[in-house]
From TrEMBL, chain A:
Residues 13-92 form the BRCT domain. This is Replication factor C subunit 1. It comes from Didymodactylos carnosus. The lineage of its organism: Eukaryota, Metazoa, Spiralia, Gnathifera, Rotifera. The keyword Glycosyltransferase does not apply. Keywords: ATP-binding, DNA replication, DNA-binding, Nucleotide-binding, Nucleus, Phosphoprotein.
Automatic annotation (TrEMBL), chain B:
It comes from the Eukaryota. Residues 34-190 form the AAA+ ATPase domain. It is found in: Nucleus. The keyword Phosphoprotein does not apply. This is Replication factor C subunit 3. GO terms for cellular component: DNA replication factor C complex; nucleus. Belongs to the activator 1 small subunits family. Subunit of the replication factor C (RFC) complex which acts during elongation of primed DNA templates by DNA polymerases delta and epsilon, and is necessary for ATP-dependent loading of proliferating cell nuclear antigen (PCNA) onto primed DNA. Keywords: DNA replication, Nucleus. GO terms for biological process: DNA repair; DNA strand elongation involved in DNA replication. Gene3D superfamilies: 1.10.8.60, 1.20.272.10, P-loop containing nucleotide triphosphate hydrolases. Pfam families: DNA_pol3_delta2 (PF13177), RCF1-5-like_lid (PF21960), RFC_C (PF22534). Subunit of the RFC complex, an heteropentameric complex consisting of a large subunit RFC1 and four small subunits RFC2, RFC3, RFC4 and RFC5; the RFC complex interacts with PCNA. Forms an heterotetrameric complex with RFC2, RFC4 and RFC5; this complex has ATPase activity but is not stimulated by PCNA. The heterotetramer of subunits RFC2, RFC3, RFC4 and RFC5 interacts with RAD17. Interacts with CNTD1; this interaction facilitates crossover formation.
């Protein structure tokens, strides 16, 4: 707690001097802010309530403009009415509760125990420190048992790791994840064991599949860190007496290694220590969302394969259930979500630990620790451990508390909300800009996205802010954001990072201070999406302008966009609208004149469609045209050959992808064309050609079966003619010859996906593919 | 079938329809065999590129009309590969260095060197130099412009530059002084009308005078746009009528609608709506400057007297910041917010006076 200007005349009272007293505050106090006053009372053990009750309230602190109702009530109930000065006086005078000097004693004994360092782990089973004990903080300082000292060199987190299922915080209920996991695991072999016949398996229905856990061969535990997912998995296995193998992110989990390591263990049987063959064991895959980078490539896919084949249950654990890579996995798993336990639940278990360690942390401090650690039990225990080790007596809102507070990784949405809310009104300038420095790239965007949605609160609650006043604030905030943008430009263009703090002030602190108020929901900045959309459009536009550049009269794409685009789209679309099928020829003729490809047509239509806020406005004119006409247009366009001046072939690249030549083919071609031609004879070949940005995809498909131009052909000029449209099946015939039926079908599928063939044609094509492939066989 | 503005584009000086004096001058300079670097500037749709084509035609003959695309690839010192496409004939090359963004300096250095270092093979038959047309020179970064000024002097023997841009204000003085600056002014409304009628005649259509004038006015003295408008009108409705609807570019309509929304109501929610629309405009590659201009023009129609001056001044200030800044939407939005507060205060005070 650091006020910007700290009051000097707040007295230091004895600790706990207000213990047991309940206050109600009304009106504006002379020097203290309301929150400040609350903190002050809480610091000394008192409590602050909103409303007066007859039995519980001890004092009413009355400031200026205090509520009349409260005063009346207080008089009625005979509750003492005091003002701010009285309160301070009370703090000064009242004696504190006897505070026991526990620290010195406990640390001394701890030091000695470390020296003795009796690592009697064998005896560890005797002590079962429970996470779920009912003990309260009636601390007894002198009590120090020798049993706990035996494991003192362990971190508390490991020392008090739950060893039984009922010790896991917040997982006691009938429907808790632990119980679900138990029953799933218990029944696993009933449904998926080796002896179960295939037809017994039920069909997976698409909805409410999570209701029936027996369908799944794997479970997915997900939830925030530090709430006991791994522990749960391990304990459940222990409870059911199933041995388990655990793999986590420290193990390499690429496709290969997974195959090697895990598939062995999946099909193998387990030899337990007692030399009895146990068939049932469990695989725990921890931190599955942590698989990343080159080492873990294909890991998730392999895992899914494993799950399908597995003869043993698999438990997967991850943090982020919504992550892209987890999604595919989640389809095969029984979904168990862990939620943060309530702070009361955590509190009791933490208290029991503290009791065992003979440390006293006050209730309200514990509350704050739990809050600041975001209900991460592991971190809470760590924090307590840290204080214990650092040996400094804990004070309410002491500096060490602040340290912990900072270490919490805040969510950017939460940060943004905090910046706008009145919570941060009392923060110092430095602390306000700290909110910006949490993520200096993203925060300005968040602020900019959301500042308009904030409803600013006025200083006095009764007066509602007029639109003019609000607009005035908005305008000032917007100006400040602009300045922040200028600062960021200078920072990035001239690497002058000393300006970063100014940027923080302009783009985050000032707008937030101006617009302080209530927000409904923090939106993710649209700027990022719009920016990539703009970039995509620029790329398409560049491409389009390049194609048309030989014909048009302007030399830059912006002018092309501003002047041509709309009229071009009209010229293309009008014949289709007016004449239907007869207009197709006209449209294609026009496209040829401007060397446009089919993709360009799409681009033009996309660039001329506008979203005017209505849902219906999304569709562009082209989409409104009858789909039959569109299909015909596509087909007719693909049927003809089109001269394109821009298909520039890079010889170097082509050389790289040349395949060993197919001798027979060359002979035939030689006879026909009198030229040496090569044959790209694989579909994967075509894909690689496609990587060449200059060659359009559709053409690449055709090239896969046709020929790579020879030098002489290239010399003939930039105009290249595509070969006549080959029949679909022939494209693959050559490549397929040595391969099996399955791979051939796979190629067929790829082709259909990649080409612009219309949907209604697909079945016939597949049939055609089947025929050809079976012929080849 | 192609668009009329491309179909009937003049290729030689004799075919030009307006600015005959300037055409004569250019013709004389070019035909004398040698000429300095040119800097051709003017608003879009005025005929800059047409004049460049004419110059090239005059220099090399019809050979310059067989165009081809070429793809060049460079590597930056940092190892990044960049591609750029040039248009050119045997005699000239047209490059738009700003296609590659901030790496344009490299394009200037590499391409010009590449072209300039090889001399023409047959100097007897042709000129002793090649021509490089650089477009959008005003979009070049300062670095690139400085790189250009050295190359301009060094390779003057083997190549000539024709620079083309909309405004010289962002071309550094060092380059301006090395070039012969030629301004291509936009044609007057009368000239446009005449040309429109001429083109309609070629297409054997009958364009009434009044419609031609209306289109010319709508086109903002942009000849290209005027021709495109006529053609769209012709496909929409022929024979022409005088009160026919003239199709304006969709983005202009959208922009005007946005401005109208802002002028109509001044609330925070309106700003949010306007932001959506501005994003839409920006993502359709409409430059922020154009949006700014369009907004201001439309907003000014709702203001009067003193307010007009004030709003214009505000707009100028915000546009200046926009050019210095990075994220265009911030500045556009700040301008709208500022306009709203100024406009609303004005309205409220006017209302107050009314009731007093």
């Amino acid at each position: 707690m650091s006020w910007y200007i700290k009051r000097t005349d707040i007295p230091e009272g004895a600790e706990g001097c207000l213990e047991g007293l309940v206050f109600v505050i009304s009106g504006v106090l002379d020097s203290l802010e309301r929150d400040e006053c609350k903190d002050l009372i809480k610091k000394y053990g008192g409590d602050v309530k909103e409303a007066i009750t007859k039995t519980k309230t001890n004092y009413l602190i009355l400031g200026k403009q205090g509520g009349e109702a409260k005063t009346k009530k207080a008089e009625e109930y005979n509750i003492k009415i005091i003002d701010e000065d009285d309160l301070l006086e009370m703090i000064r005078i009242r004696p504190g509760k006897g505070v026991k000097p526990i620290k010195a004693a406990s640390t001394a004994s701890r030091a000695s125990s470390i020296q003795s360092s009796s690592r009697a782990i064998s005896s560890s089973s005797d002590i079962k420190p429970s996470f779920y004990s009912e003990t309260t903080t009636s601390s007894s300082a002198s009590k120090k048992q020798s049993t706990s000292s035996e494991k003192n060199d362990l971190l508390w987190v490991d020392k008090y790791r739950p060893t039984q299922l009922n010790q896991i915080v917040g997982q006691q209920g009938e429907k808790s994840c632990v119980q679900k996991l138990m029953s799933w695991l218990r029944n696993w072999h009933k449904y998926h064991g080796k002896n179960v016949a295939q037809q017994d398996k039920k069909k997976v229905s698409t909805w409410n599949r999570n209701d029936d856990p027996t369908l799944f061969k794997a479970a997915l535990l997900s939830g925030p860190p530090g709430i006991g997912k791994t522990t749960t998995a391990q304990l459940v296995c222990k409870e059911l007496k199933l041995p388990y193998i655990e793999r986590n992110a420290s193990d390499q989990r690429s496709k290969k290694t997974l195959q090697q390591y895990v598939s062995d263990s999946i099909s193998n049987t387990h030899l337990s220590t007692t030399q009895i063959v146990v068939e049932k064991h469990v695989l725990i895959m921890d931190e599955v969302d942590g698989s990343s980078g080159n080492e873990d490539r294909g890991g998730i896919q392999e895992l899914i394969q494993l799950i399908k084949r597995s003869h043993i249950p698999i438990i997967c654990i991850c943090n982020d259930r919504q992550a892209q890579k987890i999604r595919s996995l989640a389809n095969y798993c029984y979904d168990l979500r862990f939620f943060k336990p309530k702070s009361e639940q955590i509190k009791s278990s933490i208290k029991s630990i503290l009791f065992k360690e003979q440390v006293e942390i006050k209730n309200e401090i514990l509350d704050q620790i739990i809050l600041s650690c975001n209900q991460d039990i592991r971190q809470i225990i760590h924090s307590c451990n840290l204080w214990y080790t650092s040996q400094t007596p804990l004070k309410y809102q002491s500096s060490s508390y602040n340290q912990i507070n900072k270490s919490v990784n805040n969510n950017i949405f939460e940060l943004c909300r905090k910046s706008f809310s009145s919570e941060s009104r009392n923060l110092s300038l430095i602390e306000k800009s700290d909110l910006f420095f949490e993520d200096y790239r993203l925060t300005p965007l968040f602020i900019q996205e959301n500042y308009l949605r904030v409803v600013p609160t006025t200083t006095s609650r009764d007066i509602k802010m007029t639109t003019i006043q609000r607009l005035n604030l908005i305008s000032k905030a917007a100006d400040s954001i602009c300045l922040g943008d200028l600062a960021s430009k200078i920072i990035y263009s001239s690497n002058d990072w000393s300006l970063l703090s100014y940027m923080g002030i302009f783009s985050a602190v000032t707008p937030c201070s101006l617009m302080r108020g209530t927000t409904s929901r923090i939106e993710f900045p649209k700027w990022l999406g719009q920016c990539s959309k703009t970039n995509k459009c620029i790329r398409l536009l560049t491409e389009l302008e390049k194609h048309a550049s030989l014909q048009i009269s302007t030399a830059n794409k912006i002018d092309f966009n501003l002047d041509y685009m709309y009229y071009l789209s009209r010229a293309l679309i009008t014949p289709l609208q007016r004449e239907g099928n007869d207009g197709i020829e006209k449209c294609i003729e026009f496209m040829d004149k401007y060397y446009l490809t089919h993709e360009d047509l799409q681009t033009i239509m996309e660039m001329t469609s506008w979203n005017d806020g209505k849902k219906t406005g999304d569709k562009n004119l082209y989409e409104k045209i009858d789909s039959k006409i569109k299909t015909r247009l596509t087909r007719t366009f693909n049927k003809h050959t089109h001269k394109t001046p821009y298909q520039i072939i890079n010889l170097n690249k082509l050389k790289k992808i040349r395949q060993p030549e197919n001798e027979d083919e060359i002979d035939v071609e030689k006879l026909e064309n009198g030229e040496i031609e090569e044959n790209n004879d694989d579909i994967s070949e075509a894909n690689r050609v496609e990587e060449d940005a200059m060659i359009k995809r559709r053409k690449a498909m055709k090239q896969s079966s046709t020929k790579v131009p020879t030098k002489r052909e290239l010399k003939m000029g930039p105009y290249r003619q595509n070969d006549e449209n080959l029949k679909f099946g022939e494209l693959f015939l050559k490549g397929i010859q040595e391969q099996t039926f399955e791979t051939a079908l796979y190629h067929v599928q790829i082709f259909i996906e990649r080409s612009n063939i219309d949907d209604d044609e697909t079945p016939t094509l597949i049939q055609e593919g089947h025929d050809i492939v079976s012929e080849t066989k | 079938m192609s668009l009329w503005c491309d179909k009937y584009r003049p290729k030689t000086f004799d075919e030009l329809d307006y600015q005959h004096e300037q055409a004569e001058l250019l013709k004389n300079i070019v035909s004398s065999g040698d000429f300095p670097h040119f800097l051709i500037y003017g608003p879009s749709g005025a005929g800059k590129k047409t004049r460049i084509t004419c110059i090239l035609n005059e220099l090399y003959g019809p050979g310059v009309n067989t165009l081809r695309l070429e793809n060049h690839e460079f590597q930056t010192p940092a190892g990044k590969k960049i591609d750029i496409t040039t248009i050119g004939s045997v005699y000239h090359t047209q490059v738009n260095p700003s296609d590659v963004g901030i790496q344009d300096r490299l394009v200037i250095q590499e391409i010009i060197k590449l072209i300039a270092q090889t001399n023409q093979i047959d100097t007897q038959q042709q000129r002793s130099f090649k021509v490089i047309v650089l477009v959008e020179v005003d979009k070049l970064t300062k670095d690139a412009q400085h790189a250009l000024r050295r190359t301009m002097e060094k390779y003057v023997a083997s190549c000539r530059l024709i620079l083309c841009c909309n405004s010289t204000s962002r071309v550094i003085p060092a380059i301006r002084s090395r070039c012969l600056s030629i301004r291509v002014a936009a044609p007057t409304i009368k000239e446009i009308s005449i040309i429109l009628k001429k083109v309609a005649n070629y297409e054997s259509l009958n364009l009434p005078n009044e419609l031609a004038n209306r289109i010319s006015e709508k086109s903002n003295r942009n000849l290209r746009r005027a021709l495109l408008m006529v053609q769209t009108c012709a496909t929409q409705k022929y024979p022409f009528t005088n009160d026919q609807v003239i199709a304006e570019p969709d983005w202009e309509v959208y922009l005007r609608e946005t401005a109208r929304m802002v002028a109509e109501q001044q609330t925070p929610y309106r700003i949010l709506e306007a932001r959506e629309r501005l994003y839409e405009l920006l993502s359709h590659c409409i430059p922020a400057e154009v949006i700014f201009k369009g907004l201001l023009e439309e907003l000014l129609t709702t203001c009067d007297g003193q307010l007009k001056i004030e709003i214009t001044q505000i707009a100028a200030e915000y546009e200046h910041r926009l050019r210095q800044g990075q994220k265009e939407i911030f500045h556009l939005e700040a301008f709208i917010a500022k306009f709203m507060i100024v406009y609303k205060t004005f309205l409220d005070s006017a209302m107050g006076e009314l009731f007093d």
